[in-house]
Amino acid sequence: MNTLLLHPDIQEFIIQNTGADLTKLALQKNPFPEVEWKLILNQIEARSKAKEKLPTWFSAPNIIYPSKVSVEQTSSEKTASYKADLISGKTLIDLTGGFGVDDYYFSKKFKSVTHCEINEELSEIVAHNFKQLEIENCSFFPGDSIDLLEKTNQKFDWIYIDPSRRNDAKGKVFMLKDCLPNVPELLDFYFEKADSILIKTAPLLDISAGLSELKNVKNIHIIALENEVKELLFEIHKNYTGEITLKTANILKEKTETFEFVLNEETSIPTYDFPKKNIYEPNAAIMKSGGFDEVSVIFKIDKLHKHSHLYTSESLIDFPGRRFEVQKAIPYHKNEMKTELANKQANITTRNFPETVENIRKKWKIKNGGNLYCFFTTDVKDNKIVLICTKII
C-alpha cells in the first residue's frame, strides 16, 4: 500500500477530480511526481465507481482504494447490509475477504470478524480503511485462509466464502469446483472449523448445479438490486438434511420485495386462465428462482401458460414485481396488429413467444417508449396473443 497517497494534497486532488474524464486527465502532467500517476488515476476512477455502490467509503476521509476491478467485483453496501441480517453469532471468518464490504456489515452483527485475503496489499488496504471507518472488532490475516484454518484451534460460528472462478474455467459451464477455493472439495474440512457456512456465488451459477455439488443446504438466497440479480447465497449447516427453502429479495429504493418457497414441494399445482383485468410480471430474483408454479399457488393468481411466466387476476393484489392493467388483449394477427399497434409507440416484452422484440419492432414499425406496455406471449390454449397494458404504479 502506497501511504504517500494519503498526503492531504493528493487526497484533495483525488476528491476534486472524482467523476472527471480520466482520458483527458491522463494526458495532463502529474502534479505529484513522488507518486506514480497511474496510482493516483486509479484512486480517482475507483472512488468514482464507489459513489453509488459504497457511499460509506466514498464519504469517509483517507480511504485508499484497490484496483477498479476489486471495486467492481465487491458487494454493494445494500446487498452486504441485507446479507448481514440473514445470519448471527459471535464469531465469523471470511475466507475471501476482498475489499471488506461484507465484513464491514458482518462486524455490526458479530462480536468478532476475521478477514482473510491472499493479496497482502489488499489486506493492508482493508485494515487501513477499517481504522478510518472506526471498525475495531475485525482482525486481518494476509495469506491463504487454509493456512490459518489449519493452524488455529478456534471454532467459528460462521464461515463466509466468496469463491472466484479460475481463469482457466472460461467458456465452461460455471461450477463451484471450477472456483478458488474449491468449496465442494474442502467442505468437510470447513465443517471441522464451523457448523454453519454461507457461500456467495455469482448470479450466473445454475441453482441445481450448485445443489448437485453441495450438501446440507438449508436455505438458498437470491439477492437482486433494482431488479438485477447480484448474487446467490447457499446457507449450509453441518448434518442438516431437511427441506430446502428458496428465499428471494429484490432490493428497491423504497422497499425490498421478498418471496420464499420450499424447493420441490409437490403440492404446488398452479391454476391457468385467459388474461383478466390485471397482469403480473415477477421480479428478476423470482425469475432466477424458477418458482413459477409457487407464485400461482402462494398468491392465488392464474398463469397464462405453463411456459409464459406471466400471471393474471381480476382483483389487484400486492405483488413482488411489475403490475399492469390490461386495456386490450388481441390475437397476434396481421389485421389486429395493423389496427392496434402498427406505427405506434410502446414498451415491448416477449414471454414464451417465437419472435424477438427487435423483429416485432421492425415488422410493425413500433417505436420504443411511451405509456403502453405490450406483452407478446402465448395463452393457455397455445394461441399467440398481445396484451396491451398500462403500468400500475
UniProtKB/TrEMBL annotation:
<protein>
    <submittedName>
        <fullName>Putative transposase YbfD/YdcC</fullName>
    </submittedName>
</protein>
<feature type="domain" description="THUMP-like">
    <location>
        <begin position="321"/>
        <end position="391"/>
    </location>
</feature>
<feature type="domain" description="PG-1098 ferredoxin-like">
    <location>
        <begin position="279"/>
        <end position="320"/>
    </location>
</feature>
<dbReference type="InterPro" id="IPR029063">
    <property type="entry name" value="SAM-dependent_MTases_sf"/>
</dbReference>
<dbReference type="InterPro" id="IPR041497">
    <property type="entry name" value="Thump-like"/>
</dbReference>
<dbReference type="Pfam" id="PF18096">
    <property type="entry name" value="Thump_like"/>
</dbReference>
<dbReference type="InterPro" id="IPR054168">
    <property type="entry name" value="PG_1098_Fer"/>
</dbReference>
<dbReference type="Pfam" id="PF22013">
    <property type="entry name" value="PG_1098_Fer"/>
</dbReference>
